[in-house]
## 1
Amino acid sequence: MKALTPLLATTSLLILAACASVDAPKPEPYARTESPAPTPIAGYDWHFNRHADGSALAYGVAESDDVRLSLHCETGTPGLMLYKDVEDGVEPVIHLESGGETERFPAESQPSMLSDGVLLAATADPSHPVFQRFRRVGWIASWVGDRREAYAAHAGSEAAVERFFSACG
């Protein structure tokens, strides 16, 4: 047994030395993950409109009053106006999310001319991260209470989003 002790000690030292010479794996740096892109809804899309006083971008059914979210800017005026038609009694805030960015924009409420609900109106800075992410990924979601509504561009209509922010941002 005495002859095995130096052999075991030497073997143990060699194993420890071999383990110590191997670099320990380094953890991956934290990477912010983007929310997966939602699926576009049939019949709904982003529509850009330039007019004499500014530009508008609306998500809804073309040439109808069925609009889920609209963004407007006026020529020569900084900022965006956001509009969302909601049911009466909803907290007066437009809560938006895009690709991991989120923001709650305090809103004013007035009776809607399109529904039995109310129209929320808020102002925002087009350079806010939620809009910059929307510009990059082509979709934005709106939260009404605990209900999330995602507004994704169909293939080819991402250009409407870019045209709007080029005109307003």
Note: Confidence is low (pLDDT under 50) at residues 1-33.
## 2
Amino acid sequence: MTSGNTAPYTFVLLPGAWMGAWSWHPVARLLTEHGHRAVALTFPGLSYGDSPVGLRLSDAVDFVVEQVQERDLTNVVLVAHSWGGYPATGAAHRLTDRVVKVIYYNAVVPAAGLSMADENEVYGQAIHEAIATIPDQTVALPIEAVRMGLMQDESTELQDLVFALTLAQPGGYMVDSLDVPPVTEIGLPAAYLLGESDQSLARPGDEFAERLGVKPVSVPGSHMAMLSRPREIAAAILAAA
């Protein structure tokens, strides 16, 4: 722990696009074994039987805020993976009395006015095309993206399992932006963990870290290494908290 805080943390673990709380479960187990509390969340629209229709980024932000407040969580460290950097950032601005740090892991650090679709021209084109052609305006994850990008260095068996667990992402989550600055600009400490083999971010991870005014901390693995190398990722989160 780098903050000098000796009380147990409550790690609120936010998944990336197409994912659910399941993506954080191996790390959550390890964090609890170290004496902390871990709460892994699944965003609205990303569970079976949960409609994605009409959901906007504001709904994801509201969800995080409500979960933290309703559970009366304190000494919170928000840990965001990938797209999860958007709701983490939005929620942190509204939870300054409860959040003590935000840790971005292979995550987007949002810039005010820029959506996920705005961060990368190729990604943006695919997102807008999906929303325009699919009736419920969701964005599906192709298996090729898992094999060649998210988990390019993992076994076929793990790639197939992760793909089977994913659900289409509500399009509004991907095309809406935030109207707030990076959390460090309001005095919240932040850290950036960057997978040494990550090749799925919309732009280089050091550029996202620069938005926070911090240097990225290199961690093992590719974009989804919290599933394949949970011990190393949990250790990095604990060291950054």
Note: The mean pLDDT is 96.
